[in-house]
């Protein structure tokens, strides 16, 4: 009898445990279905609740000076040549109208400065006031003059003016220095590097730590082996950069940049900027070319800024029509990039209204 009693007690205990488990499961399901903050057993979130965000991106190494790169994604910017006029106000007007065409404010506004042209000027200040970063491409003067100290006062003046902006800026000192037609100014690598180090040191002495130094040859120069000897060193450069173009959109930008991007793999802690890029149009190829630029940048997350050269560039009587403003399809392609969250790391308001019919 005692054995039979123990058996009955064990069976009753098991039934109680099973009953409690079933009731708890039903209660949990009911609670989950009525509580939008709790996911259903299937893993499908309540329609009123956003999905759980993905893992936080790994922070990208911070440059010693100047603007920080986004941890994920890339900034987009442009040099916008005014259709008419050459004043600072003309450049700001062209930039503002351009942003209206492409659907949002650009991350980076690009301006060019000759050796003796005072900067920052009205356009840099207006761009910053409008919430943009600025990229200043400064010719800087002959390397021999900089190296000898002849231009120290000029350098100190520009350093103080940049410092007084009070915000991080990109400074692209004597870009495309390896080009043969710039040899008389840039000089050989030894002189160029010495000039770069002197200029950077003077900026530091004047407290212009907000200037991020962008080293930027042509991508073509890497293919010829001419660009690499001009590199001042990782401790002297904040962003590495190259300029690349494609006639008629036939050559993908990634192909044009190949040798530079291969070289950049040996400098993984340096954010990459494409300081100038552009394509002429033929048969409507450029829109697809621009979309591929976006896909390429996503495949290469070291690229942290891309700055389009929106200009009908003229040299020696020949015009390269890189502007997108006469092509609704090309504008729509750029608009699509600007609306893509990957290329909007600052989360600026963006429109995706198409400018061209499919």
SSE-based structural type: alpha/beta
Mean pLDDT: 86
Return the CATH architecture of the largest domain.
Alpha-Beta Barrel
* Biggest sheet layout: 8 strands, parallel, barrel
The CATH class of the largest domain is: Alpha Beta
For this structure, what is the CATH homologous superfamily of the largest domain? Answer: Glycosidases
In angstroms, what separates the terminal alpha carbons? 88 Å
Parts with pLDDT < 50 across at least 5 consecutive residues: 1-54
Q: Helix count, per DSSP?
A: 12
Basic shape: globular
Cα-atom radius of gyration? 28 Å
What's the total number of strands?
10
General description of the model:
With 358 residues, this protein is of the alpha/beta class. It folds into two domains: 1-35; 75-343, Alpha-Beta Barrel (TIM Barrel). Helix content is 39%, strand content 17%. The protein is built from twelve helices and ten strands. The strands form two sheets. The protein has an eight-stranded parallel β-barrel with strand order 1-2-3-4-5-6-7-8, surrounded by four helices. Helix 2 runs parallel beside helix 3, helix 5 (152-165) crosses helix 7 (189-205) and helix 11 (285-299) packs parallel to helix 12. It is globular. The chain starts with a helix and ends in a 19-residue tail after the last helix. Residues 1-54 have low confidence and may be disordered.
């Amino acid at each position: 009898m005692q054995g039979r009693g123990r058996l009955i007690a064990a069976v009753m205990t098991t039934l109680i445990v099973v009953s409690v488990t079933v009731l708890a499961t039903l209660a949990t399901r009911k609670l989950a279905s009525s509580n939008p903050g709790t996911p259903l057993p299937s893993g499908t979130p309540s329609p009123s609740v956003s999905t759980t965000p993905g893992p936080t991106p790994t922070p990208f190494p911070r440059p010693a000076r100047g603007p920080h790169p986004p941890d994920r994604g890339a900034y987009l910017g442009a040099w916008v040549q005014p259709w008419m006029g050459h004043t600072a106000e003309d450049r700001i007007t062209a930039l503002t109208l351009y942003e209206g065409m492409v659907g949002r404010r650009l991350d980076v506004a690009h301006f060019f400065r000759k050796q003796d042209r005072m900067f920052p000027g009205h356009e840099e200040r207006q761009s910053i006031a409008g919430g943009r970063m600025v990229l200043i491409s400064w010719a800087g003067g002959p390397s021999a003059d900089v190296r000898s100290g002849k231009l120290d006062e000029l350098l100190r003046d520009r350093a103080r003016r940049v410092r007084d902006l009070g915000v991080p800026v990109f400074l692209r000192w004597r870009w495309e220095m390896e080009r043969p037609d710039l040899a008389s100014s840039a000089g050989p690598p030894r002189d160029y590097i010495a000039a770069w180090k002197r200029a950077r040191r003077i900026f530091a002495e004047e407290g212009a730590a907000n200037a991020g130094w962008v080293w930027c040859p042509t991508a073509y120069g890497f293919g010829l082996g001419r660009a690499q000897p001009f590199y001042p060193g990782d401790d002297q450069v904040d962003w590495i950069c190259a300029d690349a173009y494609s006639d008629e959109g036939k050559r993908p930008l990634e192909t044009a940049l190949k040798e530079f991007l291969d070289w950049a793999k040996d400098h993984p802690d340096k954010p990459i900027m494409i300081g100038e890029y552009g394509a002429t149009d033929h048969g409507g190829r450029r829109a697809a070319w621009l979309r591929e630029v976006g896909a390429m940048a996503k495949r290469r997350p070291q690229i942290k800024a891309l700055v389009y050269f929106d200009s009908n560039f003229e040299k020696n009587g020949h015009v390269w029509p890189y502007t997108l403003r006469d092509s609704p399809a090309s504008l729509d392609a750029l608009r699509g990039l600007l609306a893509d969250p990957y290329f909007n790391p600052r989360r600026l308001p963006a429109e995706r209204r198409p400018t061209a019919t499919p």
